Amino acid sequence: MGPLRVAVVGAGWAGLSAAARLCQAGHSVTLFEAARTLGGRARGVQWKQDSGRALALDNGQHILLGAYRETLALMALCGLEESDVLLRQPVRLEAADGFALVAWRLPAPWHLLMALLCARRLGLGARWDMLRLILGARSNGWRIPSDLPVGQWLKELGQCREITEKVWAPLCVAALNTPVELASAQVFLNVLRDSLGADRRASDLLLPKASLDALLPGPCGTFITRHGGQVRLAARVTQLLVGATEITLETAQGAPEVFAAAVLAVPAHQVPTLIGAPEAKGLGPLVAQCAELRWQPITTVYLDFGPALRLKAPMLALSESIELGHFGQWVFDKGQLGGPAGLLAVVISAQGPHQDLAQDALARAVAEQLRLQLGVSQTASATRVISEKRATFACLPGLSRPEQRTAAARLVLAGDHTESPYPATLETAIASGRTAADLVTKALAVL
Ligand SMILES: Cc1cc2nc3c(=O)[nH]c(=O)nc-3n(C[C@H](O)[C@H](O)[C@H](O)COP(=O)(O)OP(=O)(O)OC[C@H]3O[C@@H](n4cnc5c(N)ncnc54)[C@H](O)[C@@H]3O)c2cc1C
User: Fold this and answer.
1) At CB < 8 A and 24+ separation, what contacts does 116-119 make?
2) Which residue range forms the structural domain that includes residue 217?
3) Nearest Cα to 439, choosing from 396, 416, 419, 409?
4) What is the pLDDT of residues 332-369, one digit of tens each?
5) Which of 125, 164, 373, 445 has a Cα-to-Cα distance from 51 of 20 to 30 A?
6) In a domain, 65, yes or no
7) Is there a contact between 291 and 269 (Cβ–Cβ < 8 Å)?
8) How much distance in Å is there from the Cα of 310 to the middle of ligand 1?
């Protein structure tokens, strides 16, 4: 018997990971992607300015952590050298007002203890609260008895306002993409355990210095085709029918195709529309679970200030104030990250009143915030706002996420929304892809 045909639906980072690992396991893989490009929610986009200047951007600024082991392993498998595409630096929270908390290049936990000792513009009470929270969480095995919103949990722990505003809230919103008053304290703790609480290299920040395309989707697509897989772009799957001995895929164009198994790696809200007759195959509960997830947006505002502008670091925290109309949370100097000099990317994670503004009004508000907080006095020659309304699922307390294994052994789910101790991240997506490939391989061995 030759290699078995396996379909992967969706070429985001989860689908790419699944397809690469399935090729590695010797299956005959076809990867279907509805869009004209690979990468899904972490993809490259083109920006043609009115002046004619054309820039390659990402649909949103992404950062990785040293703890992203599956992501780094897949990049290595695809032939990428970490130092060519990522800038590794110790975790650093650095704001325009002089506040700085920078991990030291020392073994854990000294990297953090020294960071606290040497932090700038952080009161003694705030330092003590941070230490208290980390030591307490560690001694409780990073578990809380019953999940609750991060904001409530911090209050119950008596964390002061300063440490909440300068450290916990920005970290929570950046990692979980959910406001502190809504976000899951247990998932936040899981992130802290595997980043700040783990060894120093795990807590490192990895800032992309190549476009997202070059960071994984491009090289991974090449890996898949080199290993006998097919990558079909602009190939939207319209229905997936689970049979007793096969899975049939219908696409917008062409005749239905039959596969031995399939990995469904589309965002959760699209799962219910794709699975045909779910109740008959026992897939009803899974479909309902996917439909129940709620979403949070991420907005990235790009401002092109021209080559004279260089910030004091590639990534800085901004001071968010809804009352003052300062919506930006982080700013990235793309010129220091392999991009055009003077191009800034300002990130606004999670829901908020910025969503009510028209794009040009939001870009003006962000430019004013940069002027007031960082002294950026130049006028941007062009701006572009990219809002991903469904950037990630809302990471709420006690959330029940769909399992990857489904009631039909031939059908496996992948994606950042599938069951995991972590929030929706590139790492969750890639790890889910590898698990999906393993599950398919095991299922096909016994079916
Ligand atoms: C602006 C932004 C910033 C982010 N920042 C970070 C960050 O800093 N760090 C981090 O770790 N994570 C970050 N994330 C989260 C990260 O991007 C996602 O967790 C990850 O990309 C999800 O990958 P996925 O493969 O699970 O899903 P997706 O990327 O959504 O992939 C699903 C794919 O399926 C395709 N598809 C859908 N329907 C069909 C169909 N019917 N037929 C064929 N194909 C179909 C879609 O076109 C898409 O390509 C960010 C996300 C956004 C949007």
Assistant:
1) none
2) 5-43+212-293+396-446
3) 409
4) 999 999 999 999 999 999 999 999 999 999 999 999 99
5) 373
6) no
7) yes
8) 30
